Amino acid sequence: MRALRLLNWKSEPELTEVDEPSPGPGEVVVKVGAAGACHSDLHLMHDFTAGAVPWNPPFTLGHENAGWVHTLGAGVTGLEVGQPVAVYGPWGCGTCPRCRLGIDPYCENPAGAPVPGGGGGLGLDGGMAEYELVPDARHLVPLPDGLDPVHAAPLTDAGLTPYHAIRRSWPKLPPGSFAVVIGVGGLGHLGVQLLKATTAARVIAVDTRPDTLRLAQEYGADEVMVSSDGTADEIRRITGGRGADVVLDFVGADPTVRLGAAVARTVGDLTIVGLGGGTLPVSFFGVPYELSIQTTYWGSRPELIEVLDLGARGLVKPKITTFDLADAPRAYQQLSEGTLEGRAVIVP
Ligand code: NAD
Ligand code: ZN
């Protein structure tokens, strides 16, 4: 079968011919219906070197996947061949307290996971291929009626990651509150929708690209702004001088983490999701009192079920552009140039 593989760090992925996987006991092979192209893949290709993460190439890219159950390994029950499923992407050890709660990204026994801190497309073969081997049937979530694999795939990361970040901040987002979304790309365009669907906060969206801000407006962002030197002042003005209750930074570069700290409110949340490598000097008078600053990684399996429900009911809808597997390099090119809106989805 065809597979788009990252063969080395600091290299472009290559479309190669590999053997079709067959499932061992407890494993499932999924016929891939769709695999989203995430900006994290660009970090894998261009920014990472050996030692950055506890695994290495070669592996097939694609960590946000959905499709249909193709073959079941011995002992797998509760799934049927042909059934549409989303693949829960972070694969932990399965037995530590966090994995038992479905919080695989924060697995406490990484040595017991298929690869520490990774999953399909992140150290193991992912979904940018005709078939994906899923090493544990518990990672498959049946798709609710009304959701097809092409729209479900982005929800497994570009949807789940902002959902997790937003959900943990729900208590800080009552009516009257403000949330700032920095970076309205694959994750951010769903972040805006998830804020509107699950909170009563006013949403302020910031990006460098006017086009994607128009998209944010379509999704109900109350204010949009092209980032400039005046952005922090403008957000302060809009929030009545208080600042935003929650800032979600889907870029994570120096200018955005600093903007986040400059516009967050006392007792607010500044959540850094983007892997842009920015740093934030923190000192007593340098940040608002009781501002909580955190990074988040992906989301839990129960949260994926919730996001898929929102997707099936049309409350969040990824804006997608589809590409054939052979065309995946063009999708990454557009993602890298910033000429894509929403998410690129590879349909093998
Ligand atoms: P994307 O390229 O689709 O979107 C990024 C958006 O940020 C674009 O719209 C771009 O115009 C905008 N942007 C870039 N620089 C900006 C700046 N200085 N100010 C304002 N806006 C700016 O990327 P994506 O797939 O949505 O991923 C976003 C980031 O999140 C990446 O760093 C990715 O690696 C990371 N990520 C993290 C997790 C996690 O679990 N923490 C999961 C998935 C992706
Ligand atoms: Zn991702």
Automatic annotation (TrEMBL):
It catalyses: a secondary alcohol + NAD(+) = a ketone + NADH + H(+); a primary alcohol + NAD(+) = an aldehyde + NADH + H(+). Pfam families: ADH_N, ADH_zinc_N. The keyword RNA-binding does not apply. InterPro entries: ADH-like_C, ADH-like_N, ADH_Zn_CS, ER, GroES-like_sf, NAD(P)-bd_dom_sf. It is an enzyme of class 1 (oxidoreductase). SUPFAM superfamilies: GroES-like (SSF50129), NAD(P)-binding Rossmann-fold domains (SSF51735). Keywords: Metal-binding, Oxidoreductase, Zinc. It comes from the Bacteria. Residues 2-346 form the Enoyl reductase (ER) domain. Its EC number is 1.1.1.1. Its cofactor is Zn(2+). GO terms for molecular function: alcohol dehydrogenase (NAD+) activity; zinc ion binding. Belongs to the zinc-containing alcohol dehydrogenase family. This is alcohol dehydrogenase.
